[in-house]
């Protein structure tokens, strides 16, 4: 199977190179035949890479340890379902995975490309196929997953036990594909820029793909947080680790982009800025892949570290130069069709939102690179971790939440003092009342109060919009359900956006609750011992052990009673892998909307006692709602509307939000 | 900054509102803080634990890590706090032993001020640039009329503002007379 895989890689390399050159030459020579054949090459690449991926899967399933990669990332004891995880557990395999999924998404994008980007599509294809070529080329030249050993070892080294978690089935693939796929909105934008035809033609399809990639990255990051929370055993979900940061940064830039693109879509403004934004997102995503694949920064997530990073850094440099070149070349084609009417308008709010989002991304990037700078200038290594980001990014994120509450309530073009006051009156009162109630309940940390107050502000603003809109339609004779459905159908980007905003609010709730009011205790208990943590009384019942082929599992049973009543059993799981000399834990978590009780067994002592870490994390339950809400919001925003043809942006007049929005069959 | 003050005058009610809100939050917050209890030794120890990296486990603080060394360091932190040492003294003790990178964030002194200063300066510069750009964009649009009194501007813009309000109403209603939508009211 390994030979099949290698052959498939070379074939895919040839085809992707052909697709890249064929497409641009076909466009320049106006040859439809060449353009068609290049497009077929685009469709062929994912098919052939699927063959390569399939042969890697087969090598794993057959325990073909002659293949170096299989020997390094699996063993006979591994459950077959973790083959899927093993594929991307190392560098070579993850490159194959990235190349396959990226080429697949590119093929889908090309197949679905609307007429509006016909003129720029060949350039877009060339850029994307160049990127696919790069990934396949690195694989073939430097990290071939099908490289074989000169002998066949009897067993493999096994997979990293931290990776054998359900979250690992979706989180790394989403992030890897997401990071690579930022190239799609980038290529759409830059392709349009090169072709120099209509400056707004790319906006609709570019926004769709930016949103898709944005949702992938967002969900991937949230799943990673969930994975860390349940498996790493320190009771947290986000540590501002470099690897986490590099996934966050392109997401932030894309968040700015999907907002700002709406302004171009509606008003034909910010043309240049939008191109800059997707460029920033793309550069940050390449930076992310660079750090992920063996960059110079230490991280808890260095699962597939190597020195390949420098190849990616080189690619990053070339991409940045290319983007700058195109930008300079077409500088004049990006003038806005309209100008800003007022500082007090949704356009202006979007610009400030962009600034804050990029600010957070910049601070994060700075935190990642500062240790290198310090090393370079002083020769002293420093660490930039959570305390830095919390202090610098914390206020920026609070400001963003505030803006998230105000921005959508402002009308396009211009708001009067009256409309503004009317818009923020109710949410403002709700926020102040909330803060008052929290104070009465004994919540007194100022930052927590501000955070909760702002959350209430945003939610009240959204609910007010929904209720008000529904009531207006209801008064015109629709029943409440139809009125609400019609309201959302009438402007899906807007109402999808509200759902995504709610996702951010629940995320903020969880973060504020757990970081300001989380408590933690380390205790050592023997069987039969009892300890009280807050309102919980925890009794250690004893440990059951099970010996497996590659590990010893410890089931530490505890019973927990709350305020003297309601007794329940929980089990904190821990396993020791003698061959790898590694331990893995799975926390026992009792999650309620109020708080999580989180019990992890960190160590089994020789005298039979067990060291437990017990945390009470308020409001974390809400955080995990953010992922589904984010996806729901994206779906609502992306659900196809029947007539988006034409270019509402190019009219530049006050054509409203919803001019081109006939209702679906509701 | 003549035109900026113009804009501010138009902001008045919104600004007043946010000032009141902020003041309410600030007053209540500080009122509570002053009567709040000071943190316990354990809370202080955990805060210090989150500010110190575990030297043998990349990317983890001693509060997070389960490594033996981290456990010992946690014990030392508590011992030192119990014997009356301050936060800074405890941190200094570990910096002496394990170098500066044992701190989870660079101290706000010396060369490390760059780490903290650049984000603040960068964001301030970006905001200033944005304000200038927005001002430029606005001046191009409204031109001369902006230079007049605020009331005049309001009057000049009245028809537009009315239209905007109408628009907002339509957006909230979500129909805008689109085909297949809700029949317009009689």
Q: What attributes characterize this protein structure?
A:
heterodimer; A: alpha+beta; five-stranded antiparallel sheet; four-stranded antiparallel sheet; 21 helices; 61% helix; globular; disordered C terminus; B: 186 residues; mainly alpha; 6 helices; elongated
Describe the structure.
The complex is a heterodimer of chains A (666) and B (186). By secondary structure, chain A is α+β, with helices and mostly antiparallel strands. Chain A has helices at 2-28, 32-61, 68-73, 83-87, 91-112, 121-142, 167-181, 183-195, 203-231, 242-267, 271-292, 309-329, 346-378, 386-406, 417-440, 446-475, 480-490, 492-517, 620-623, 626-638, 648-651; strands at 519-525, 530-533, 536-547, 552-562, 565-577, 582-586, 588-591, 595-604, 610-618. A 5-stranded antiparallel β-sheet of chain A has the order 2-3-4-5-6, with no helix packed on it. In chain A, strand 4 (552-562) and strand 5 (565-577) form a beta hairpin. In chain A, helix 1 (2-28) packs antiparallel against helix 2 and helix 14 runs parallel beside helix 16 (446-475). The longest helix of chain A is centred in the middle third of the chain and has 33 residues, at 346-378. Chain A is globular, with a radius of gyration of 27 Å. Mean pLDDT of chain A is 86; it is low at 643-666. Chain B has 186 residues and is mostly helical. Chain B is built from 6 helices and no strands. In chain B, helix 2 (41-50) packs across helix 3. Chain B is elongated. The two termini of chain B are 49 Å apart. Mean pLDDT of chain B is 72; it is low at 1-11, 142-154 and 175-186.
């Amino acid at each position: 199977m390994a030979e099949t895989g290698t052959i498939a890689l070379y074939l895919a390399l040839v085809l992707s190179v052909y697709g890249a050159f064929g497409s641009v030459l076909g466009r320049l020579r106006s040859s439809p035949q060449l353009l068609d054949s290049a497009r077929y090459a685009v469709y062929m690449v994912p098919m052939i890479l699927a063959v390569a991926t399939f042969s890697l899967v087969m090598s794993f399933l057959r325990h073909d340890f002659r293949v170096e990669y299989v020997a390094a990332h699996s063993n006979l004891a591994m459950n077959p379902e973790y083959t899927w995880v093993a594929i991307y557990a190392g560098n070579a395999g993850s490159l194959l995975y990235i190349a396959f999924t990226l080429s697949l998404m590119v093929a889908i994008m090309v197949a679905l490309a609307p007429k509006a980007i016909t003129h720029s599509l060949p350039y877009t294809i060339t850029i994307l196929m160049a990127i696919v070529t790069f990934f396949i080329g690195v694989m073939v030249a430097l990290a071939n997953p099908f490289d074989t050993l000169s002998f066949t070892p009897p067993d493999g080294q096994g997979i990293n036990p931290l990776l054998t978690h359900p979250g690992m089935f979706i989180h790394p693939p989403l992030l890897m594909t997401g990071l690579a796929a930022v190239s799609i909105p980038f290529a759409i934008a830059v392709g349009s820029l090169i072709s120099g035809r209509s400056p707004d033609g790319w906006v609709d399809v570019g926004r769709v793909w930016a949103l898709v990639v944005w949702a992938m990255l967002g969900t991937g990051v949230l799943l990673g947080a969930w994975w860390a929370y349940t498996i790493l055993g320190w009771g947290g979900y986000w540590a501002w680790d470099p690897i986490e940061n590099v996934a966050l940064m392109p997401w932030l830039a894309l968040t700015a982009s999907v907002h700002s693109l709406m302004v171009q879509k509606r008003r034909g403004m910010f043309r240049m800025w939008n191109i800059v934004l997707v460029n920033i997102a793309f550069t940050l995503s390449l930076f992310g892949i660079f750090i992920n694949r063996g960059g110079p920064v230490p991280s808890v997530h260095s699962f597939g570290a190597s020195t390949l990073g420098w190849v990616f850094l080189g690619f990053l440099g070339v991409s940045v130069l290319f983007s700058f070149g195109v930008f300079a070349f077409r500088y004049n084609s990006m003038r806005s069709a309209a100008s800003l009417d007022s500082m007090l308008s949704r356009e202006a709010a979007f610009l400030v939102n962009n600034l804050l989002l990029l600010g957070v991304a910049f601070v994060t990037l700075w935190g990642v690179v500062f240790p290198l700078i310090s090393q370079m200038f002083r020769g002293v290594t420093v660490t930039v971790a959570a305390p830095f980001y919390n202090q610098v990014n914390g206020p920026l994120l609070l400001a963003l939440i505030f803006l998230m509450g105000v921005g959508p309530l402002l009308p396009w073009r211009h708001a009067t003092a009256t409309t503004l006051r009317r818009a923020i009156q109710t949410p403002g009162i709700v926020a102040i009342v909330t803060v008052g109630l929290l104070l009465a309940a004994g919540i007194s940390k100022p930052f927590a109060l501000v955070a909760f107050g702002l959350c209430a502000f945003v939610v009240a603003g959204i609910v007010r919009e929904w209720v008000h809109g529904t009531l207006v339609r209801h008064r015109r004779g629709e029943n409440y359900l139809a009125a609400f459905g019609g309201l959302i159908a009438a402007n899906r980007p807007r109402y999808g956006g509200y759902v995504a905003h709610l996702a951010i609010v629940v995320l903020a709730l969880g973060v504020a609750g757990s970081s300001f009011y989380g408590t933690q205790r380390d205790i050592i208990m023997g069987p039969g011992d009892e300890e009280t943590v807050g309102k919980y009384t925890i009794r250690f019942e004893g440990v059951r052990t099970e010996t497996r082929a590659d590990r010893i599992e410890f089931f530490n049973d505890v019973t927990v009673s709350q305020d003297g009543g309601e007794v329940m059993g929980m089990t904190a799981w821990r396993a020791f892998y003698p061959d790898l000399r590694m331990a893995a834990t799975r926390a026992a978590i009792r999650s309620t909307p109020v708080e999580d009780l989180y019990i992890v067994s960190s160590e089994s002592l020789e005298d039979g006692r067990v060291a437990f870490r017990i945390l009470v994390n308020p409001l974390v339950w809400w955080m995990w709602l953010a992922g589904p809400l984010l996806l729901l919001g994206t779906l609502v925003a992306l659900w196809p509307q029947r007539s988006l043809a034409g270019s509402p942006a190019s009219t530049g007049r006050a054509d409203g939000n919803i001019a081109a929005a006939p209702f679906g069959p509701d | 900054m003549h035109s900026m003050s113009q804009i501010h005058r138009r902001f008045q009610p919104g600004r007043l509102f946010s000032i009141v809100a902020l003041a309410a939050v600030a007053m209540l917050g500080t009122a509570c803080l002053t009567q709040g209890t000071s943190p316990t030794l354990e809370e202080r120890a955990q805060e210090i634990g989150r500010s110190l990296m575990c030297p043998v486990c990349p990317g983890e603080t001693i509060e997070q890590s389960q490594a033996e060394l981290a456990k010992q360091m946690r014990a030392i932190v508590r011992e030192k706090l119990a014997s009356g040492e301050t936060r800074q003294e405890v941190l200094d003790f570990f910096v002496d032993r394990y170098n500066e990178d044992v701190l989870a964030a660079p101290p706000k002194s010396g060369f490390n001020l760059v780490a903290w200063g650049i984000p603040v300066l960068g964001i301030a510069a970006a905001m200033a640039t944005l304000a200038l750009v927005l001002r430029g964009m606005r001046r191009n649009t409204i031109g001369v009329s902006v230079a007049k009194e605020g009331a005049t501007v309001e009057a000049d813009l009245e028809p537009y503002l009315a239209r905007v309000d109408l628009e907002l109403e339509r957006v909230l209603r979500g129909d805008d007379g689109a085909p297949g939508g809700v029949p317009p009211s009689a």
